[in-house]
Amino acid sequence: MSDASPSTDLFELVGQEARMAILRALLSARRESDDPHHSFTELKEAAGIEDTGRFNYHLGRLVGTVVAKTDDGYRLSRYGFRVLAPMTAGLYDPDTTVDGIELPGTCHECGGSLRVESEENSLRVVCRAGHTVNEGIFGHADVVADQSPEEAAATLGLVNTQATEPGVSGVCPKCHRRREGEIEWLDRGDCYVYRAPCDGCGSRFMATVGSCVATHPTVACFLADRGVDVRRRVPWTLPFRQAGAETVVSEDPLRLRVAVGTDVADDPLQVTVDREGSVVGVDQLAEGADGPERR
Ligand SMILES: [Zn+2]
Ligand SMILES: [Zn+2]
Questions:
Q1: What phi-psi label fits residue 261: left (phi over 0), alpha (psi between -120 and 50 degrees) or beta?
Q2: What is the pLDDT of residues 163-173, one digit of tens each?
Q3: pTM
Q4: Residue 289: inside a domain, yes or no?
Q5: DSSP-derived 3-state class of residue 255
Q6: Residue 249 in contact with residue 258, Cβ under 8 Å?
Q7: Residues 166 and 179: beta-carbon distance below 8 Å
Q8: How many domains does the chain have?
């Protein structure tokens, strides 16, 4: 039905009132019904565009990228849903603020209690004295706006795990491209960090050395056996994930070690990583033994 050529520029696609009306109508169809499709006529009516020629032109610009045309009608394409869904879920609403949800754990600088607050619609974890414990990774304020402290902490733990695991494994958490990362010294933090900038989307992923090992199977099992689900724990409540928790085993080649579980075990797991952030050794002092037992 439509004869205009599709655009591939997302800014051009959504930066026009008629096109946004069409996309909103398709997003509503997806939210409010099991059938995400609209016929040409239904979609024209739902978008509130009376002029058929005008509607047809703008629809044509969308089909093939953010809108798919199928035998059942028009619907958002998978790509369209992925890029547009967060906007309609109320996320990125500039009016959403979060203030004063208390969180578990303490500030690593002053020991004070923590809370989550929002700035530029992005979440940040701070202590009463104003030290920033964590920022950047958690995204928009709506994620925890109506949650209890326990729910908010579990949500932030899961969101963090979801972003950190690909981030330290060679995949950009934002755009999912493969890119290189490595551990380097960070002067301003006075510690080592894992850094993996992404040329594709411009994301500047950074994680503590402990975060590189957090979801390693042996580490996750060791903690699970001691009642700690590493996926659901916000990182700052795990001592080994804090900045500067590493010790230097050797500088060339770089080998860093973090002690996992110092708060829950008398015999913490000693985990060694290389410059790429890969785990190259896991040792535990076995009870009654004189030396480390290699697992
Ligand atoms: Zn503090
Ligand atoms: Zn990226």
A1: left
A2: 888 999 999 98
A3: 0.73
A4: yes
A5: strand
A6: no
A7: no
A8: 2
Least confident of 68-72, 133-137, 217-221, 223-227: 133-137
CATH number of the domain where residue 20 is located = 1.10.10.10
Q: What whole-number distance in Å separates Cα of residue 45 and Cα of residue 28?
A: 13
**Measured in angstroms, how far is the CA atom of residue 165 from the centroid of ligand 2?**
14
Highest mean pLDDT out of 3-17, 46-60, 148-162 = 46-60
Distances from the Cα of 137 to the Cαs of 9, 206, 207, in angstroms? 27, 9, 10
Task: Map residue 252 onto helix, strand or coil.
Answer: coil
Amino acid identity at 39:
S
What one-character DSSP code corresponds to residue 28?
Answer: H
| All residues with CB under 5 Å from ion ligand 1 | 107, 109-110, 112, 127, 129, 131
Q: What is the mean pLDDT of residues 13-26?
A: 86
Q: What per-residue confidence (pLDDT) applies to 290?
A: 46
**Domain end: 64, 88, 112, which one?**
88
CA of 242 to the centre of ligand 1 (A): 14
Helices (H), 63-123: 78-88
Q: For residue 280, is it within any domain? A: yes
Distance CA 121, CA 138 (A): 10
Amino acid letter, residue 17: E
Token pair for 144: 């925890």
pLDDT (0 to 100) of residue 289: 42
Q: In the 8-state DSSP scheme, what is residue 290?
A: S
Ligand 2 centre distance from Cα of residue 179 (Å) = 8
The model's pLDDT over 179-226, given as tens digits with 9 standing for 90+, comes to 999 999 998 878 999 999 999 888 888 899 999 999 899 999 999 999
284 within some domain: yes
The DSSP code for 5 is P
Span from the CA of 106 to the centroid of ligand 1 (angstroms): 8
For residue 247, the CA-to-ligand 1 centroid distance in Å is 23
Residue 83: give the domain boundaries.
Answer: 10-88
Whether residue 66 is contained in a domain is answered as yes
